[in-house]
Fold:
Amino acid sequence: MLQSQASRKKPVVSKQWVTIFSIGGRRFATGMEEVSGIVQWPSVVPVPSQTPFVNAVAWLGKDVLPIFDLAGQFNLTIESDPPLCLLAKHEDGLMAVRIDSDMPTLQSLDRASIQLSDGADPVMVGTCTIDDQPIDLLCLTKLGKPPA
Amino acid sequence: MSLLARKNRSAPPTNVNQQLIVECGPTRVSIPGKGIRGLLKTIEATFQDTITLLGETYEKSDLTNRLDPNKTVTPFSSQGRTILCSNGVWRKAYAVDRIISLLEVEPSAIVPLPPQFRGAEREWFDGLFIFEDALVLIINLDWLVAPTDVVPWRSEVAAGHGL
Structure:
């Protein structure tokens, strides 16, 4: 029996590209579109601050970038030297995040493999499985936003 | 050599403001020159709670400690200075670790504190500028000299509608 045109179509698999990076040896994933770039860790200036995990700025070109201490939020310590700087597209403007010296990688994920969380935490949006290991999926545009 | 330097000497200043750059622990901050009434060695005023100059009394405080309650200026340092500050209404004297420079900064060279800073620091600082390849935070003079127990003014209270 001849198959109809529609039944011969491959099932549509929705893919998402994610950036995999590590902090203190722990791997995280984030949407590729949320990362503006990866650069060498710049010199930073501490800023007395009461904003949690935002207590320094870096000067990159003409831009003054606030630094988000993601390692501090997850109680991780970056020991690799020199660290790298991930430029996150935060909703209020670019933010710098200190990450391990291992260069981040890009990976394509089947959207169906992403397990979304309950939405209470705007930053920890879910988990995905890479190399048979669960990895937290972060929303970098919402860094610093407290859970509801 | 004069302590006063001018950033970007190529163009005549149009609307410059002087900033006294000081070191407080690991941070460099600047105090607007218009608010500075005097400068003395901290070691000369170590055992005084207040400093009186030209009939005006300045309550002593520690700028490093004001910005971070877990830190203080280095005690008994020969480089330590105490800066007498006023905004015309309030007065305070602040000990700092070191004076770096007195500088004229054009307003166009000043960038605001990034919006990701959401806490009280938005009141503490008026912006940043670059000096000697490093960023300097500009202290808000009114916050610097205001008594720490002052309740923020609210229009509804003044109009008799509040409290």
Observations:
- Chain A has one domain: 15-142.
- The interface with chain B takes residues 43, 45-51, 54, 57, 59, 64-66, 68, 90, 92-93, 95, 143-144 of chain A (CB under 8 Å).
- The helical segments of chain A are 5-8, 70-73.
